[in-house]
Amino acid sequence: VQLQASGGGLVQPGGSLRLSCVASGSTFSIENIGWYRGTPGSLRDKVASIDKGGSIEYADPAKGRFTISRDSAKNTVYLQMNNLKPEDTAVYYCYADQGSGARWTIYWGQGTLVTVSS
């Protein structure tokens, strides 16, 4: 599975951005797809995910402001981010996983930088 993320940029506090992640390769076997974010020197934190059945999970900082969605025909997952705050500044990484039981493989996109600043 290959993942290509895009859509980051500079936005003022309170603004919005939409990230996109296009998956290619063995996309039929993806179980979960979504977004993590990270800053230099910190671990990546999960932001949101959507599973094969369409169930969605959000991390607490994303609830009420971010919306994850999927266009299966385009093999694309989106992250609509509204009311952005300076603390949302991070590199956002698209991820996807495949597997079952104890055997899982995680794939990462290249990351897209989101900067929230006035």
Can you describe this structure?
This protein has 118 residues and is mainly beta. Helix content is 0%, strand content 57%. It contains no helices and eleven strands. The strands form two sheets. Strands 2, 4, 5, 6, 9, 10 and 11 form a seven-stranded mixed β-sheet that branches. It is globular and about 45 Å long.
Count of alpha and pi helical runs: 0
Q: Which structural class is indicated by helix and strand composition?
A: mainly beta
| Helical fraction | under 10%
Largest sheet: 7 strands, mixed
Q: What is the end-to-end distance?
A: 37 Å
Helix/strand order, N-terminal first = EEEEEEEEEEE
Assembly state: single chain
The count of β-strands is: 11
Q: List low-confidence stretches.
A: none
Write the layout of secondary structure elements.
Elements: E1 2-6, E2 9-11, E3 17-24, E4 32-38, E5 45-51, E6 56-58, E7 66-71, E8 76-81, E9 90-100, E10 103-108, E11 112-116
Parallel strand pairs: 2-11
Antiparallel strand pairs: 1-3, 3-8, 4-5, 4-9, 5-6, 7-8, 9-10, 9-11
